Amino acid sequence: MNGFYEIARSDPGRLAVAEPATTYGELLARVNQVSHGLRARGLAQGDVVAGVLRNGVEQVVMLMATGQLGLYYVPVNWHLTQPEIDYIVGDCDARVVVTGPEDVAALAEGQQDTAPDGRTAGAVMWYTSGTTGFPKGVQRPLPGAEPEAIVPLYVWFLGEVCDLRPGPGVHLVTSPMYHSAPCAHTQFALHLGHTLVIAPRFEPEPILALIEKYRVTNAMMVPTMFHRMLLLPPEVRKRYDLSSIRQVVHTAAACPVAVKQAIMDWWGPVLYEYYGSTESTIAFSVKPHDWLARPGTVGRPAPTFEAKILDENGMELPPGEPGMIYVKSGLGTFEYRKDPVKTASSMRGEWYAPGDIGFLDKDGFLFLCDRRTDLIISGGVNIYPAEIEAALLEHPSVADVAVIGVPDQEWGHNVVALVQPHAQVTAQDLLAHLEPRLARFKHPKVIEFRDELPRTPTGKLSRSKVREQYLAAKG
């Protein structure tokens, strides 16, 4: 069966969403009603719909309805301020904006639940801000084919990268669907015929309870979630049966080796990792046993992808030499909506630079160093904040940490660590912890403690915001 729409027609009683219990047939009926409602408002192929929605069935309905009408769907972060939301809605030229369940109900009201005529695949257009400037929509060409025609490519790709297969399965949604990876995995799960368990938010123990209750087989998470679950007391961790898990895919941020190893010691070899971006999608991937053989890698180029590491002059670097990562995909191109200059500046011919520094080993496995924008140069030496953060996170009293470079007249930049403690700990304790782990030049010159550090809902640390706040406070 080719994806959600066909599964819903041929096996309508299959459970699509666990809470509230919704079958594939019921979900498709609502998807079709909303599709007709969008058509009734005059939307045609290539038009844009924006959704400012929390996780739930309504978000799923909008994804699948626009996905069979040849529309672009823009999921908008509901945490944004109204001016920020207005900017995205205006920039994408949204013809319809959905802001809550009542809007979805209004689109569906009085509409027939049969399939619309002229069905053609749509696409999701996510807005990404990178590290600076206003958000830009990452827009891909519409496939120009029925939704069912493109499903086999998804299924093949996910099978190669994550060992995810069509058939029985339960997918746990742990992150906001306005971000690209959680949104894509929600769609993938339905095309594979799996049941969605949509968590209202991430909290460590309730997530474990959901895994046990629904016998979850696969999920998508981010490293911060792993770290928070590892802070649970041993007796709490042992309370839940997690034996149903087969694949937990993680992405969005570098995962400290010690954290990933500890999760696999607990859950077994079930962690699948991929590295990419909203623009490049899944560019590198690594399965559990390959990672265990090469701790720290984010994998080799995913199917259809090529990769190379270039120096500042655009020359290709040999294995082991860090440089800018460039990738090229056979799955198609993208452009930043209304910004051909930004599109061109992010490319070197057919090659796209996600903005990270890394190196390939002799077998073609990629190891990340850091974001180019977060690189600290102190005394002429390159220092990667992520490496220091990973080492500090190994201390049992550290809940979160951000390492930044602060301007210094003598050194260029000094390394400063801002630590969110989990238990009582001193700066001297942490420096002693780093002594056997990192060279002395990588040790923070300053360690300060914070009640909380700014992270996005998907767990990405906002170092730029940390740096701005720190420098503003210091005058």
Q: Summary?
A:
The protein has 475 residues and is α/β, with parallel strands linked by helices. It is 33% helix and 25% strand.
Please give a structural write-up.
The chain has 475 residues and is α/β, with parallel strands linked by helices. The chain has 3 domains: 3-191, Rossmann fold (3-Layer(aba) Sandwich); 202-372, ANL, N-terminal domain (Rossmann fold); 375-474, ANL, C-terminal domain (GMP Synthetase, Chain A, domain 3, 2-Layer Sandwich). The chain is 33% helix and 25% strand. The protein contains 16 helices and 27 strands. Helix 9 (223-230) crosses helix 11 (257-267). The termini are far apart. The model has no long low-confidence stretch (mean pLDDT 91). Pfam families: AMP-binding, AMP-binding_C. Its EC number is 6.2.1.3. Residues 6-110, 117-329 form the AMP-dependent synthetase/ligase domain.
Protein topology:
Blueprint: H1 3-10, E1 15-17, E2 22-23, H2 24-40, E3 48-51, H3 57-66, E4 72-75, H4 82-91, E5 96-98, H5 101-108, E6 123-124, E7 126-128, E8 136-139, H6 147-162, E9 170-173, H7 180-191, E10 195-198, H8 204-214, E11 218-221, H9 223-230, H10 234-237, E12 247-250, H11 257-267, E13 271-277, E14 281-286, H12 288-293, E15 300-301, E16 305-310, E17 323-329, E18 335-336, H13 340-345, E19 347-348, E20 351-352, E21 356-360, E22 366-371, E23 376-378, E24 381-383, H14 385-393, E25 398-408, E26 412-421, H15 427-434, E27 446-449, H16 463-474
Parallel strand pairs: 3-4, 3-5, 4-6, 9-10, 9-11, 11-12, 12-13, 26-27
Antiparallel strand pairs: 1-2, 7-8, 8-18, 13-14, 14-15, 16-17, 17-21, 19-20, 21-22, 23-24, 25-26
Helix pairs in contact: 1-2, 1-6, 2-3, 2-5, 9-11
